[in-house]
From TrEMBL:
Belongs to the EamA transporter family. SUPFAM superfamilies: Multidrug resistance efflux transporter EmrE. Keywords: Cell membrane, Membrane, Transmembrane, Transmembrane helix. InterPro entries: Diverse_Substrate_Transporter, EamA_dom, EmrE-like. It is found in: Cell membrane. This is EamA family transporter.
Length: 541
């Protein structure tokens, strides 16, 4: 009996995770309706409790996985983005719940879900036009189909269950628009760390900002919501299942599921909402509403297929020479360089210029290539990706690096190919390559998910045997080595300057010193660090 490769098994599991997230999201509107029938809670109170419960669950999950420091680092390094995404998430939930109360579950879900991708597509088209990038001709047609569908749904007879239909539709449109903006900001924030850490940071930030508002506006509702078992159960369900679990499943599934497949799978949300509302609440969409729903689903299907991907240049088939890049990249939260974490694969441009060039559009394609070629004699490969703003599919950093680590590979330099593409170098991790905390946390998650291969485990065991696995532990824990401590005490003002540096700057300097291969290089870096601290300037920048 034939067996599936690990890459294909992982892809199937990821697809099921995305489907499960869509189903859970689809039950949210119904849960709100049933909760309000039991207790007349405001949508703001429900949204506040949902965010609070989700934040507590996510924080507990991060604490159990010992990833709290990475979550704090994300919030410390990108505080504005974290707050904007967190508040935006809470806001579009409150707007959606308000729409549910006024126009019903079915219409609210279809309008808010259908509008978000349309807004994102228009925004991408505007950015692309400003950048001089040609978009596919089908974009306007897709937007027209979606708007027509929205008009049909908005003008359909929603029945007696909708007390204020116009207000409900307006709230649903606002929810979809806010959601689109939040997704756009979250996409830029995603590179700051692991999806779980980013999600936890943003959800916690949303809870911290929104809860005082809820307490100020509806203190009686906050107390009354938790005075009955049914009320507590309803709020717990919304927070745990429709937010914490649903978003965790969705983010996990996106590591191996193509974006187009995920977009189609999450259409289970309106299907679930409509079926649940029909079975439990007796809601019905008219013929016009059903036709509008169908048009919206068709538009989303076109968008998920990536209309316009065939336009523009394709990646070069032939290799080209690559100018070597010095390893002077800024360090992100956790001590890893932005755009790469390989400290032993920076040079050798001649060998790299003739290496294979791939352009995978899904994490599953990249993982399948590694499964077949990870032990080939090639020095590595270039992974080409579309740049943000082109409107074309690109694999987020985390799925790329996790697949590489699973097979004993690591990333290196990222360079610009042209106005539409970048490429990143991937190669087998060499003996002596140092391991950052983020890389070790990724390995732990891969092991827990049974995604590590024998090749990847062999590289980890080699690092543990030669000491490179724990070489950076003191640096990442901000432990000042004796030679640096002596140097700081020997330069007037250096100790005070060192203490004034942020934890992220101190960590990057300690890692920079730890990377020194020769004693003379280390001594030079220690002296430069002390001198720079006295002047308030990091020596590695």
């Amino acid at each position: 009996m034939p067996t599936l490769s690990p890459a294909r098994v992982s892809a199937r599991v990821g697809f099921l995770q995305v489907c499960a997230a869509g189903v859970l999201w689809g039950t949210g509107g119904l849960a709100v309706q049933l909760l309000r029938e039991h207790a007349p809670l405001s949508v703001l109170t429900i949204s506040g409790y949902r965010t609070l419960v989700a934040a507590l669950v996510l924080v507990a999950a991060v604490a159990v996985g010992r990833g709290w420091s990475a979550t704090v680092s994300v919030a410390r390094e990108r505080p504005v983005a974290v707050i904007v995404v967190g508040v935006g998430t809470a806001a579009y939930q409150a707007l959606y719940f308000g729409a549910v109360v006024n126009v019903g579950v079915s219409v609210s879900t279809v309008v808010s879900l259908g509008l978000a991708p349309v807004v994102l597509t228009v925004a991408d088209a505007v950015r692309a036009r400003r950048s001089g990038i040609r978009q596919g001709a089908g974009h306007l047609g897709v937007v027209a189909i979606a708007i027509t569908g929205l008009a049909l749904v908005a003008t359909s007879d929603v029945g007696p269950a909708a007390p204020r239909p116009l207000l409900g539709i307006a709230l649903a449109i606002a929810s979809g628009s806010v959601y689109a903006g939040t997704v756009a900001m979250a996409g830029r924030l995603a590179q700051a760390g692991d999806p779980l850490h980013v999600t936890t940071a943003t959800t916690a930030a949303g809870a911290v900002v929104v809860l005082p508002l809820v307490v100020a506006v509806d203190p009686a509702g906050m107390v009354g919501a938790v005075t009955t078992v049914r009320g507590v159960a309803g709020l717990a369900y919304l927070g745990i299942f429709t937010m914490a679990l649903a978003y965790s499943l969705f983010n996990a599934g996106l590591r191996t599921t193509p974006g187009s497949t995920a977009a189609i799978a999450t259409l289970l949300e309106p299907v679930t909402a409509a079926v649940a509302a029909a079975l439990v609440l007796g809601e019905r969409l008219t013929v016009a509403g059903i036709a509008g729903t169908a048009l919206i689903l068709v538009a989303i299907g076109f968008l998920s297929a990536g209309d316009g991907q065939r336009s523009g240049p394709r990646p070069q088939a032939r290799s080209r020479r690559v100018r070597p890049q010095p390893d002077s990249r800024p360090v992100q939260a956790g001590g890893e360089p932005v755009g790469g974490s390989c400290y032993s694969c920076v040079m050798e441009p001649d060998r790299r210029a003739d290496a294979p060039r791939l352009h995978p559009e899904t994490a599953a394609e990249w993982e399948a290539w590694l499964a077949e070629h990870h032990d080939d004699p090639t020095p590595g490969c270039w992974v080409v990706q579309w740049r943000s703003g082109t409107g074309r599919p690109a694999i987020p950093y985390e799925p790329l690096i996790e697949a590489a680590l699973a097979y004993g590979w690591i990333d290196g330099t990222r360079i610009t190919v042209d106005t539409e593409r970048t490429e990143m170098w991937f190669t087998r991790r060499r003996a002596g390559s140092q391991w950052t905390r983020l890389s070790k946390e990724r390995v732990a998650r891969l092991e827990a998910a049974d995604r590590m291969t024998d090749a990847g485990r062999a590289v980890v065991e080699r690092a543990k045997a030669d000491g490179t696995w724990s070489l950076l532990d003191d640096a990442e824990n901000l432990v000042v080595p004796p030679d640096l401590s002596t140097a700081l005490d020997g330069v007037p003002g250096a100790r005070e300057g060192w203490d004034a540096f942020t934890p992220g700057v101190r960590r990057s300097l300690l890692i920079w010193i730890a990377h020194a291969k020769r004693p003379q290089t280390r001594s030079t870096r220690v002296a430069r660090t002390a001198a720079g601290a006295a002047m308030g300037e990091p020596a590695n920048r």
